[in-house]
Amino acid sequence: MRLIQHIVEEPRACTYLPExxxxxxxxxxxxxxPTELEAMLVRGWRRFGPVYFRPACATCGECVTLRIDAxxxxxxxxxxxxxxxxxxxxxxxxxxxxxxxxxxxxxRWHAQREVARGWEPSELDPERYALDFAFPHPAVxxxxxxxxxxxxxxxxxxxxxxxxxxxxxxxxFWDPEHAPPSLGVAHVVALALDARARGLPxxxxxxxxxxxxxxxYKARYGPHQLLVGRPAFGERPAWE
Length: 240
Known about the structure:
Number of helices: 6
Structural class: alpha+beta
CATH topology of the domain at 69-203: Aminopeptidase
Largest sheet: 7 strands, mixed
Number of strands: 13
Shape: globular
Distance between the termini: 29 Å
Order of helices and strands: EEEEHEEEHEHHEEEHEHE
């Protein structure tokens, strides 16, 4: 693992809880092995491309790292329904690809989020997509959902990481007009079932923020475990 930059951001308005002040600890690093990534995930770090980050907020601990216990995972009634809704799709896992089809899918999805949730516009060009979602990493995987009844149309795409002991859900976007209901839910359930089938103990979902509706949903996947605090490298993480 080669560290290029390590900073703690200046305090700023929180994206998830606007009345709060937020800070991130950020590491830019390359040549990170899947085992080294696992050691970061278990301590609450997340990854986009070569950028690794976790909360460093001095006065708030609402962002809590959550992981699914894959062996004990039991999908709820609504989660099973989401998986059935997606059963007509083909699901393939491979290396991330950057092309016009994926860029167009992201653009349609984000435009819908801007209207439905008031998100700021986000234009993703091929270079930025490649950096965030297809950066060369031995752990990264792309999960693509296609609709055979619509000439193989791409209707959902997830980016995840695979380590020796876990899967980590990084990002997911879908076609707001053609994807079946709750495809994002089906994606997480499928990852949990994949992990259990392969003997991987955990699926990391990132940060649960109970007061933020777009992140509180993670608590509905169970049983799950929550990370205690922000353990340093060399410090044994505690999960409960």
